[in-house]
Amino acid sequence: MTDQEIKLRIAGVTPESVVDGPGLRAVVFFQGCPHHCPGCHNPETWDPAGGKLLSVQEVWSLLRYNPLLSGITLSGGEPLAQPEGALAIARKVRAVQGNLMIYTGYTWEELLEMASPSISELISLTDLLVDGPFLLAEKDEHLAFRGSRNQRIINVQASLGKARPVLWASKGGTGDALGTAGS
Question: pTM of the predicted model, to two decimals?
């Protein structure tokens, strides 16, 4: 399928953000989420029929990707509920040497058990992954880039092929850039 044929249901895009991952990032907010976490920051993204249906190319155009960006963050809703669309965006990010961060309500361990070629490839293109559902009882507003203490920021490239995930360690603050996969 081409980028015009693959459709994504999105809640919106933010061309520039400094709160959705390290560095200056663009963000795609996916529409639809099966987790329905109590206290969710984006409950308006839960309805899988809400938002707008756009092609991958239309979403990319809305992002206005520029060379000052560190990369793209896929958030939601649940990006992995639309794995083919998320993968198409990830490929575009890699084509411009950007990095990819994903927020998901699934845990790393659950993702590794999913038998989806699209999710497997998407994970292989990801730099950082914030995993796990938001838990209101573990909410902590002082955490960098996540809402509750159970959520982990995983360095995906360092974790691939390992028995357990390698957690991301910031090198001096919330504005750190990542570089691309393999760096």
Answer: 0.91
